[in-house]
Structure formats: C-alpha cells, structure tokens
Design goal:
Blueprint (H helix, E strand, L loop, with lengths): L5 H13 L2 E6 L18 H4 L2 H4 L2 H6 L1 H17 L4 H8 L6 E6 L5 H5 L4 E3 L2 E8 L5 E3 L18 E5 L8 H13 L2 E5 L8 H10 L3 E6 L11 E4 L2 H6 L18 H6 L1
Parallel strand pairs: 1-2, 1-7, 2-3, 7-8, 8-9
Antiparallel strand pairs: 4-5, 4-6
The structure holds adenosine-5-diphosphoribose.
Adenosine-5-diphosphoribose binds next to strand 8.
Length: about 260
C-alpha cells in the first residue's frame, strides 16, 4: 500500500496509460461531492435512520409507509444532484479504453446520468420499484409521499427495488460484476467503506486474480490493506486536479447531464 504521494499518482497514471480494461467499483463516497449523503460516519444516513427501521424486509413488512418515505427522500436528494468530476471522468474512460465497466453499490443513478453505459448496480436502483408478489420490476419516478401503490399486474404491494440488509444480490449482476473485475487490468475502488458483503469481496477476488487495484477515499478503509495503491482525498478533486496531476484529463462538459434531464429523456 502506498499513500497519496506524487510517486503513487505517477504509478497509477503509468498503469492507466497501459491499461485496456478498467472497472470503477464505487460506493456512496463518489456521490458525496454531488451532495448525496453517505451511509456511515458522521452525518451518515444510518445514524439518523436506523437500518432496522428502513432497510430490511422486516422493516417493510412492519411499516411500508415509513420505508417508502425514506426512499422517496433519497429520490429527492438524487434529483437535486448532478454528476461530479469523478462520475464524469469515469464516463469519459469509455472512449479511452477497450472496456470500461462500472460496478456500483449506489442506487442514485448518477453514473448513468454522467454517460456511463456498462453499469452493474449491485444494490438495486432508486428509480425502480418491484412487486412483492409477482416480482415485476417497473420504472417509478414518484417523488412525494403517496398511498401505497398496488402492482398494476397482480395488485401486490410495490416495494423499492433496493437490496436490503439480509437479502441476496441478483446472481446475474453479481456474476457479471465478478467477471468484469477479475478480467480488468485495473480496478478503481472509489468512495466505499468496504464493509458490506458480498460487494467488498469482489475487490478481494480481483486482487487474487492479480488485477491492479487502486483505492480513492478520504481515509483508510477495510479495503486499504487489500489494494495496491491508496490515494487519499476527495475523489472528485483527485479526478479533476486543474494542475494536470489528476488521473486523466476530464471528459468534455457535454457529459455533465443533470439527473433531472436524464430522467425526463
Ligand atoms: N471522496 C472519496 N471518498 C469519500 C468521499 C469523497 N468525497 N466522501 C466520503 N468518502 C468515503 C468515506 O470515507 C467512506 O469510506 O466514502 C465511504 C462511504 O462509506 P459508506 O457510507 O459505508 O458507503 P458504502 O461503502 O457505499 O456502503 C455500502 O452499505 O448501507 C449499505 O447499501 C448501502 O450500498 C451501501 C453499502
């Protein structure tokens, strides 16, 4: 592990120049500079909204309205946000590398709004809901508290299409993510505490397959001992250093789509 030094940055940039396949593995920290709160740490969502009240299947059974209100608030946060230089730079990588994938734990849609196309959403999507009976997934852009909406197919109760604590990830999403990360030349682990499984193990698996792994975070995490290089600081700042020491130059501004516009399109 190396701390953020000029040498570490140079090593990362040299590797990037030779890389053909890169994957960005992201967590809530990548959207922090877009104004979306993270989950843990001071000001983290789980401090003010205990997990067992809003993010488990039992919580939804007990009080679906409370859980929906929590996720509608998350939608309103996401709608106010726009991709920051980290999302934008990663989207720009699609034009530089033969493959650029995004494996994200985030549900906010900001990678897509920035223009990324190959995205695996490990923990679901804030803008979809799913029937608790027939499992039908549908687009859902409601923003305000409402009566609980029944499934238009079977009348079942609709729930957020989010993977809650105690639930399994979609096996196809997990398998594709694992394949992308094992096959990559470089994996960037951006803005995640690395404490939630099985997501965090994707990084360990990639490392075992000799993939060069780079972490971008404000401080040390559970994955710091695992990765090859850690760059400490705000990821948006690291990606966009105006003095040319950023990872790669920024993609053009036209990629900076406001989420609200993407939702309208
Ligand atoms: N730049 C880089 N890193 C940042 C920034 C920033 N601007 N801001 C915060 N961070 C880092 C924090 O230091 C922390 O390590 O982002 C991380 C956020 O950690 P968490 O809040 O735990 O978010 P995440 O790792 O995405 O959580 C994983 O847990 O609760 C579940 O389903 C939820 O997908 C989420 C999962």
């Amino acid at each position: 592990m190396e701390t953020e030094t000029a040498a570490a940055l140079k090593l990362v940039r040299d590797r990037l120049l030779r890389a053909r396949k890169v994957v960005a593995f992201s967590g809530a920290g990548i959207s922090e500079e877009s104004g979306i709160p993270t989950f843990r740490g001071s000001g983290g969502l789980w401090n003010s909204h205990p997990i067992e009240e809003v993010a488990t299947p039992q919580a939804f059974q007990r009080n679906p309205k409370l859980v929906w209100d929590f996720y509608l608030e998350r939608r309103r946060d996401a709608l106010r946000a726009k991709p920051n230089p980290a999302h934008v730079a990663i989207a720009g990588w699609q034009e530089r590398f033969s493959f650029c994938g995004v494996v994200t734990q985030n549900v906010d849609g900001l990678h897509r709004a920035a223009g990324s196309r190959n995205i695996q959403e490990l923990h679901g999507n804030l803008w979809q809901s799913r029937c608790t009976q027939c499992e039908r997934v549908s687009e859902d852009r409601a923003l305000e508290a409402r009566d609980l909406a029944p499934c238009t197919d079977c009348g079942g109760l609709m729930r957020p299409h989010i993977v809650w604590f105690g639930e399994s990830l979609d096996p196809e999403v997990l398998a594709t993510s694992a394949r992308w990360m094992r096959d990559a030349d470089m994996v960037f682990v951006i803005g995640t505490s690395g404490v939630v499984e099985p997501a965090a193990s994707l990084v360990r698996d990639a490392k075992r397959c000799a993939v060069f792994t780079v972490e971008l975070n404000l401080s040390k995490t559970a994955l710091t001992p695992v990765v090859d290089v850690s760059l400490f600081g705000k990821c948006g700042v690291i990606f966009s250093r105006a003095d040319g020491s950023g990872l790669l130059e920024q993609a053009p501004n036209r990629r900076r789509t406001k989420l609200s516009r993407w939702l309208r399109d």
